[in-house]
Amino acid sequence: MSNAPHSVTAVIVAAGRGVRAGGDLPKQWQHVAGKPVIAWTLERFLSHPQVTGIVLVTHPDDAARVSALNLPGTVITTDGGETRAASVQNGLRAAQDGIVLIHDVARPCVSDQIITDVIAATQNAGAAAPALQVTDALWQGDTYVTGTQDRAGLLRAQTPQGFVLAKILKAHQQFQGVAADDVEVACTAGLDVKIVSGDESNLKITTPNDFARAAKRLETSIMDVRTGNGFDVHRFGEGAHVMLCGVSIPHDRGLQGHSDADVGLHTITDAIYGALAEGDIGQHFPPSDPQWKGAESHIFLTHAVELAATRGFAITHVDCTLICEFPKIGPHTSTMRAKLQELLNIDVDRISVKATTSERLGFTGRGEGIACMATATLVKS
User: Please, which of 153, 184, 190, 308 could form a disulfide with 179 given CB 3.0 to 4.6 Å?
Assistant: First the structure.
């Protein structure tokens, strides 16, 4: 198709009552994996970079629920009709000229890849839809099998189904009877519909059992990635060594602090707390509490690691930078990384320990103490 339109509007049909799915609410308003089905479906298209707008077709009785979604300005809402075909036509009339993707709200697991493929195929061919080959044997019958059906050439239709707006709207206006989907409407009007590969994960919620299947797929697709930063400073005082990242390094002075003053472990601990939005060491281990006087800092780090695990997060990477003129850190970084590997329980190639000076500027440059900064990445999937 030459001069393919650039506008891509998703028309999400959500006006049905979904009685076969069971429950006290229409299926699009029932919760799955913590959110209404309709919210998951909208999110799939709102997050797709090629979709320029959304028309949400809903039942008039659902106006309060639609309002509670706090939809962005890129979503236009319109009322559905007495039939699915009437609802689709209402949605098409509200869409921006260009390509439209007609999608069932009950398919909340549609992937970015399917949306991308349908858009590309529609731009090239004028109409496209995803489908899967039928692989199961097909029977005819009711209580007993009365015959079989050849499955060669049979496909299982999915959505979104993509069309040029003007052509599919005209096809709907001319169609007589009840169509299985918009592809049937298009084909009846003589439009050629390109088939793109569907995906088993793009399931349609129809019966009560489908909610559990959708929840499993949605929960495994969610990934919560957190990044936390930490910064700490300890001044030099009397002593014959400093503790850095769990390693004792000989030095003519020590670091001062309520605990063992391990500025490296303190900073990493705070980075983990920061990723969890759990404050800092001082909140969990107040310096006013005498039980922590002289405490080994691995206690604090272990607490942060265990807290992350309790919240379902895995620590995937830690980067620690020590800022000082002395002692020299380079000869000890391998030992520090090995100690951190033990405390964090992650692979050593996910742990970075490095050092820099402040070019003799500031308190670190004057040799008054050591500063440290750290970043920790946590992932929950």
Answer: 184
The secondary element (H helix, E strand) that includes residue 113 is helix 112-125
Task: Give the pLDDT confidence of 90-141 residue by residue, as tens digits.
Answer: 999 999 999 999 999 999 999 999 999 999 999 999 999 999 999 999 999 9
- Do residues 235 and 369 touch, judged by C-beta distance below 8 A? yes
C-alpha 297, offset from chain centre: 34
> Which region holds residue 360: left if phi is over 0, alpha if psi is between -120 and 50, else beta?
left
Angstrom distance (rounded) from CA 272 to CA 262: 16
Q: In sequence order, which residues have a C-beta less than 8 Å from that of residue 34 and are 6 or more positions away?
A: none
Global confidence as pTM: 0.63
Residue with tokens 């890849």: 113
DSSP characters for 328-355?
--GGGHHHHHHHHHHHHTS-GGGEEEEE
Q: Is 88 helix (H, G, I), strand (E, B) or coil?
A: helix
Tokens 């709207």 correspond to what residue? Answer: 169
Q: Using CA atoms of 249, 289, 267, 341 in order, give the dihedral in degrees to the nearest 10.
A: 70
Q: Using CB atoms within 10 Å of the CB of residue 72, give its burial: 0 to 12 exposed, 13 to 18 middle, 19+ buried.
A: exposed
What is the per-residue DSSP string for 263-329?
HHHHHHHHHHHHHTT---HHHHS-TTSGGGTT--THHHHHHHHHHHHHTT-EEEEEEEEEE-SSS--
Please provide the DSSP assignment of 70-86 as one string: ---TTEEEEE--SSHHH
Q: Which of 204, 227, 198 is nearest to 217 (CA)?
A: 204
Phi, psi of 21 (to 5 degrees): -80, -10
